[in-house]
Design goal:
The strands form 3 sheets. The chain has a 7-stranded mixed sheet with strand order 4-10-9-8-7-5-6, with helices on both faces. It has a 4-stranded mixed sheet with strand order 1-2-3-13. α7 packs parallel to α8. By secondary structure, it is of the alpha/beta class. The protein is built from 13 helices and 15 strands. It folds into 2 domains: 271 residues, 3-Layer(aba) Sandwich (Aspartate Aminotransferase, domain 2); 92 residues, Aspartate Aminotransferase, domain 1 (Alpha-Beta Complex), CATH 3.90.1150.10. Helix content is 38%, strand content 17%.
Amino acid sequence: MNTFRVFPNESLPEIVDYAEGNYIYTKSGKKILDTTAGGSCHAIVGWSEPSVIAAIQKQLSKFTHVDYKIWRDENIEKLSNLLVSRADHGLDKVYFCGNSGSEACEAAMKMSYQVHQDSGNLEKIWFISHTESYHGATSDALALGQRPNLEFYRKMLSPFRSLIPMHHPYKMRAEGESLDEYARRSASMLEEKILEIGPEKVCAYVGETIMGGLIGDVPPAPGYWRYVKQICDKYDVHLILDEVYCGTGTSGKIYCCDWDEVQPDFIFIGKTLAAGYGAISAVITSSKVQNIIAEKQGRLQHTTTFQGHSLGVAAALSVQTLFHNDDFLANVNSNGKFMRETLERQLGDHPFFVNVRGRGMRFSLEYKCVNQNEFGMALASKILEEHNIFTSIKWHRANFTPSLSLTEKQIDLILGVFIKEFKNLSSNWK
């Protein structure tokens, strides 16, 4: 085999024959219900959605891609309008920057840097993020995060990056401390870091709207992001929010930060934008940002070949049209609430249970036991092998990131199997 594999020492995985709805069908004849939206949380409308396929086919008959720096694509303008049509945060410009969330992260960083440069803030080259975060695998995005298996790259990354302790109300709040007191104290760590580096040197603070990939769906304490924004504004530091994982309706709102009533300077989105029907990412920002760049250098100093890829835009427009709907978002919230409440009701008094937390259809159940990573992997393996349900259970939590189109019958099946096998495996776990 000539394919360079990510895990070359592991046995070859199943070959996918086709996928439909929320099921993956393998060449070996298995029908597997996927609770992970494609393994990387991207397939949030499932597979073979007729309206999305029709939109792609229609675009294929016209043109596959044109450079939107040179030409206009009507779908790009329609998608831009749609992406800011239901936003509470007030941002009004959409920059289609590339194909992945990592690219979107770096685009937002570069846009922030250029705005400061064009405003005469020439020393602002530092970016602050928090521990236990992950913003992507490209160099600048990687420099912001703290993913353990990628730390060996640290020596080759930019030194102008700094970390503050993660915002985690479940683990970091002191005994007797109210949520508001913790939110203020946690935000004050950002101010302390800005003052330590020097406000004239700090470009932006980059954070996940909810703690996602490494920690598992931890929403912020109420008020946290508003307190952070006040500090950022005080020192002319941009606030950049990462919603690659929790954006475009997955949290029950189009933008997860709208739960927190905050207006950042930039939001970047990626994997869920076209739900895997195309590779496309974007940065949401403001007319103020565009005007600063227009008046100074006259152009944004960032481009990629396939930014605003026409097929991806057509797919994203169709996908996002499904999500920008009150009934759809209400269903995401009600399904997520039902699943979390069921897990807490059935497992809340279990000795391994720690908590269930999250928003919409982005939530995790945290457990604690000896050899807990092995427990999670054994549980996931048992659920897959005996019930043909694919889950993400590892480290310290079971991560639920299903398609937003999950049916009630599928939800009941997933919950029933998970609760049953969690209890069975834990009863004899050593």
